[in-house]
């Protein structure tokens, strides 16, 4: 996961975004609800917390895999760079680690509920930020 955070750090620096602005950013209501869901999932139990967090990694990886070639037409190279980082071996190893942990879960049907709920939040967040130009 360090490679993912390093990637975000590099992108933030490249865009000359002030880190204080990030700390003071007011999250959307949907993001607040998603963070609340992640917090409650992790309080519920290890499996619930892992599967809820995995949806974020999984959705980003899937989006990058699907869209990397289309991003060559984008005027901003930042999205292509972000997708390249999400498709890196280091990030793929994070996905594999999550999958290996999840494969040992004994109540996968219940875990699917948490995964689906988290994916739903991810989709709502993508829609919100796309529609609002944030």
UniProtKB/TrEMBL annotation:
Protein known as: TENA/THI-4/PQQC family protein
Domain Thiaminase-2/PQQC stretches: 3-131
Lineage summary: Bacteria, Thermotogati, Thermotogota, Thermotogae, Petrotogales
Annotated TM spans: none
Species name: Oceanotoga teriensis
InterPro entries assigned: Haem_Oase-like_multi-hlx, Thiaminase-2/PQQC
Database matches in Gene3D superfamilies: Heme oxygenase-like (1.20.910.10)
Entry superkingdom: Bacteria
Any Pfam family: TENA_THI-4
């Amino acid at each position: 996961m360090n490679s993912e955070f390093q990637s975000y750090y590099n992108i933030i620096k490249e865009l000359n975004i002030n880190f204080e602005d990030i700390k003071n950013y007011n999250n959307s209501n949907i993001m607040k609800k998603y963070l609340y869901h992640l917090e409650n999932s992790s309080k519920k139990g290890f499996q619930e917390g892992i599967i809820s967090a995995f949806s974020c990694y999984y959705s980003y990886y899937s989006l990058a895999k699907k869209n990397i070639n289309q991003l060559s037409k984008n005027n901003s190279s930042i999205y292509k760079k972000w997708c390249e980082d999400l498709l890196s071996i280091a990030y793929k190893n994070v996905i594999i680690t999550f999958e290996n942990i999840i494969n040992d879960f004994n109540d996968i049907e219940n875990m699917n509920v948490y995964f689906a709920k988290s994916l739903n939040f991810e989709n709502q967040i993508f829609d919100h930020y796309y529609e609002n130009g944030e």
